[in-house]
Amino acid sequence: MRALIKSEGRWITAAAALSLAVLLLGVVGLGRNPALVLRLMVSRVLLSPYGLGQTLYKTTTLIFTGLACALAFRCGLFNIGAEGQVYAGGFLMTAVGLALPGLPAVLLIPLLLVVSALGGGLWALLPGYLKAKRGAHEVITTMMMNFIALALTNYLVMARFHVPETIHTQELPAAASLPLAGAFARTFQGSAVNASLLVALALAAAVWYFLWRTPLGFELRAVGANPEAARSSGVPVESRLFLILVASGALAGLAGVNFILGYKHYFEQGFAAEEGFLGIAVALVAKNHPVGVVFAALLFALLSQAGLALNTVIPRELFEILQSAVIFIVVICQNRLGEKA
Amino acid sequence: MPSTAAIALRGIVKRYPRVIANDGVDLVVDKGTIHAVIGENGAGKSTLMKILYGMVRPDEGSIELAGRPVRFASPREAIAAGIGMVHQHFMLVRPLTVYENVVLGQEPGRALRWDRRQARSEVSRLSKEYGIAVDPEARVAELSVGEEQRVEILKVLYRGARTLILDEPTAVLTPGECEELFATLRRLKQAGSTILFISHKLKEVMALCDRVTVMRRGKTVGEKACAETSREELARLMVGDMEIAESKSSDFRYEAAPETALELESVCVAGPHGRRALSEISLSVAAGEILGVAGVEGNGQRELAQAVCGLLPYYGRIRRAGRAAYIPEDRHRCGLLLCAPAWENMLLGRHREREFSSPLSLDQAAIRRYGRALVSDFDLRPPDLEQRAAAFSGGNQQKIVVGRELSKSPRVLVAAHPTRGVDIGAAALIHDRILRAKAAGCGVLLISADLDELLALCDRIAVLYSGRLMGVLPRGQANLETLGRWMAGLEQA
Amino acid sequence: MNFALQVLHVSGPYVLAALAGTFSELGGVINIALEGILLDGALAAVLAAYWTGSPWLGVLAGVAAGILTAALHAFACLRYEVDQVVSGLAVNFLAAGLCRFLLELVFGSSSNSLRVETVGSWGPLDPFLVLLLLLVLAAHWAVYKTSFGLRLRSVGEHPQAAATLGVPVLRMRLWGVLLSGALAGLGGAWMSLSQHQFTDGMSGGRGYIALAAVIIGGWTPLGAAAAALFFGAAEAAQIVLQTYGLRVPTQFVQMLPFALTLAAVGGLLGRRLPPAADGIPYSEEQD
Asked: Which residue has the higher pLDDT, B479 or C204?
């Protein structure tokens, strides 16, 4: 366990150092002053309560999708369908929330959390079934389900739920709102970070406990490590593969909670456009460890928040390029050192 | 040096991170002879051949072909120098046709648009010239194992090889196909080819080859003319100073126990191409009995083990006295989580037991206690429960698997090749533990390709051939001759 | 415009990307990077056409950008054995960011480029369509009639076997991926030049749809092209129906390729197997 964290910690530190180096290189290449950029990064992101709040808000979503990908990777499956699962979970949650206007918060919020996980899990049901029964590759099926989710929710929003002139649904009842951090700590006022962060952190701990401290979690990891050995030891591999994908989908489904219950209170078309891919990136950099996921999510959130905060000085797109460069370099280094999880 | 040597390898060294595969190997092969290289699994034969074929680069040593020093950076260069290799695991592209496989990489005709007609006629010519019967137009996916091997030989001949390397070519063949292969090889020798024949089957070596080089633990330990040696001498060289198959038979006597541990009634298992992998198998194993299953590999042993363990669908009836413990034949593929620590490997399959877990938690302390007990009982080295399975030696890996399975105190044990590729010390320990399980009343189905192992451990020995049970003999009546005839499918009890 | 011609125009980029995917996967490299290659090709074509005033140089630039983007994917997958899916996704993410970055830098807009000329027609013939037809036939010929195709298929099916016969596995795979880049880059150039401009995110999932076409087409050039043509036809039909007031929701047409692919991998459309070593990295010295 300690060794695991050490190894993850190393990769996340390396990734952070790397992004900084590549960033400064890019800044110099564009003929801007690197010292200025550094100073702005610190003052606008790290030292500004708003910037930090926004970063933590972004971190929250990435923890959810990162955990989803890490769980699947750990168990030998490649879920690239997190984005679609976020839409499915988020949409189902919104629909249920809109249908139950009178419920008090104590009932409504737990219910909506469960529903969003259910929606995400539901969206992984078909890939799980096709994997277990037909041996269909989950990369292909989850990818296809992404596009179907996007198109389907777009259709449902436009045809049934949308507020005219917008691409989002009506707002949920007030009881469905998770409190903003700004309500408790003045420093975060105005930023979107909300109680979902606590849900995400609790979930990271729960995923860790599940994988390393329960017999079922052990079984799932065994299936990931060597399905034939697991089968020989009496593990029903097919049903476990199904379970892994559905559980991963449920984790991803919860990601919508941050945007919908915590921030905007409505479902918006394509609101999770890059979260699926970044979730994969987070899981990779974290080497699929739930604790690592929290820190890797923070790193990627910092990068995209820095992109927004510095847009006046350097184009935001530079940070997107930076993120993919980091992924490439980290994955290549992990392979070279034979540390593939 | 006399110039008759077609190949001379001198002082070859190849080191891998964990082992030295070749440690100063010398091999001299005369032109126009069939030369055997024998040795147990892991003796370094395959690595040596890969070096000769340019697939692996040696760390030290020299290679000479007909007196000229050469250095191959890739198989392409070895091929150009007239060396061809028939791999143990066939290297065929299954969706392509026979002739496409044969010419692949050296297609006749112009640079881009190659000449299929010429390829077909060339392949037919070769197959006629050397009496190798195979349809050039057939898809490889539809061929039998024997035919696939013929395609491999055609590939080598098409490239004009004068030196052929055959890596364990008979392991997958039926006796009839073996005879055909030997006839082909003798014809090739007459036509002037030099053949390197890798094997660990002494009988074949004595029947076919002119000279033989023996390897053990990465070194050459002897070179003999087949006419001037005996199987006993070669066996002694292969095994080394260790005693050959020390007999453990005296300590244990078979007493008919009233209880049946395992019973199979007309068990059939479907195989590929609509054939049966197992056909009407009926047998029973008593509690406290070891039933050995002998046979050439690929005659249904794997299917038998998997059916008994409930890992394969079957027809017929199988009754077990309890869940079968299973030592699979391939520990890397089916036995271990290579990237996981030793203790997790020891837990696998027992993780649901009350002793180690409740539905919501694993009892770390109990698991470590059990792990430490297993470590000392099986003398696991290094005695480190946190070390990843991949980092243990083969013998210690196998100890983890055997220890885990026997720790379940099973009523039924299926052990498939439990000491394959394992050092002598670990093998002796594993044999001892299996005998202990027997003494505790476990019924054991012991599948092995090693007749000595079977004769040393088993109460009765059954023979599988082509998915059928050829017969069962009590050990007292078992002799190599009868078993051999059954294994060759020549005669049935 | 004639409906058949319209279908061909809509399908063109799909077909080219599907051929691209087929070449890459036949050699054993999964190419999810198609989406990013289309995008880079599209932008490069517009940039070159804008700077030189010659749409044909734009086409060349699109092909070159496609090859370069594919080279990045190949470099990660072949040289460093990065997981092919991860690399492909990262290339797509990179391409999206890079294109927006360059769009901003060159045209000062984050949404679209200035207008450029497209290639002129050859009498009654559209050069893109002529090129498309030739390329589909050439792809089939290359895969099944040439030694290049034989070797490419062999490294995608059983790289160890190919290696023992002296076929350079990694070099063949590299060719497969680079060819893929060239074809998809051309598809990208077609996409942007026929619109006379580049718009942000204009690949719009075509790369992924092309992957779907590769699967449904059973990893054959003609099959993939036919599946891509079918998806293009569905899109064109939807546009035509809309002009007649028949509203089939766009979203359902968008779903079609993906739903069909699910049916295909689920075995509902008959079972076709991918190349046996598709997606499995190969390293030169294995022991």
From this structure: C204
- Chain C hits for A151, CB-CB cut-off 8 Å, are 251-252, 254-255
Contact criterion met (CB below 8 Å) for B77 and B57: no
* C81 touches A at CB < 8 Å: yes
CA terminus-to-terminus distance, chain B: 55
Q: Which contiguous run of DSSP H or E holds residue A285?
A: helix A275-285
Strand B211-216 to B219-225 pairing: antiparallel
| pLDDT band, residue A341 (cuts 50/70/90) | very low
What is the domain count for chain C?
Answer: 1
- Reduce the DSSP state of residue A268 to 3 states and report it: strand
Please give the pLDDT value at position B18. Answer: 63
Q: What is the pLDDT of residues A31-72, one digit of tens each?
A: 888 888 888 888 888 888 889 999 999 999 999 999 999 999
Q: Is the pTM of this model over 0.90?
A: no
Q: How far apart are CA B401 and CA B378, in angstroms?
A: 11
Query: Number of CB pairs < 8 Å for B and C?
Result: 75
Q: B87-116: string of b/e by CB count within 10 Å (b at 16+)? A: beebbbbbebbbbbbbbbbbbbeeeeebeb
Lowest-confidence pick of A253-262, B38-47, B213-222, C155-164:
B38-47
Distance from CA of C26 to the nearest CA of B (A): 12
For tokens 């100063």, the residue is B24
- Full residue range of the structural domain in which residue C116 is found: 2-286
User: What is the reported pLDDT for B257?
Assistant: 56
Mutate to test the interface with A, among C40, C93, C200, C231 (most CBs of A within 10 A): C93
- Residue C110 carries which DSSP code? S
The pLDDT of residue B3 is 52
Residue A222, classed as helix, strand or coil, is helix
CA distance linking residue B5 with residue B390, whole number of Å: 41
Question: In the predicted model, what is the mean pLDDT of chain A?
Answer: 90
Interface of C with A in 95-114 (CB under 8 A): 96-98, 100-101, 104-105
Find, among C224, C235, C234, the residue nearest to C264 by Cα. C224
CATH of the domain at C278: 1.10.3470
User: Quick check: C276 contacting B, CB < 8 Å?
Assistant: yes
Q: What is the pLDDT of residue A5?
A: 53
Q: How much is the ipTM here?
A: 0.89
pLDDT at A19 > cutoff 90:
no
Distance from CA of A174 to the nearest CA of C (A): 31
How much is the average pLDDT of B261-271?
93
Touching subunits of A (3+ CB pairs, under 8 Å) are B, C
Q: Best residue in A140, A158, A303 to probe C by mutation, most C CBs within 10 Å?
A: A140
**Which residues, 6+ apart, have CB-to-CB distance to A81 below 8 Å?**
A123, A124, A127, A141, A142, A143, A145, A146, A249, A252, A276
Query: Looking at per-residue confidence, does B48 or A160 come out higher?
Result: B48
Closest CA to A204 of A66, A74, A83: A66
Q: CA dihedral defined by B334, B335, B340, B346, rounded to 10 degrees? A: 150
Domains with residue ranges and CATH for chain B:
5-239 (3.40.50.300), 255-487 (3.40.50.300)
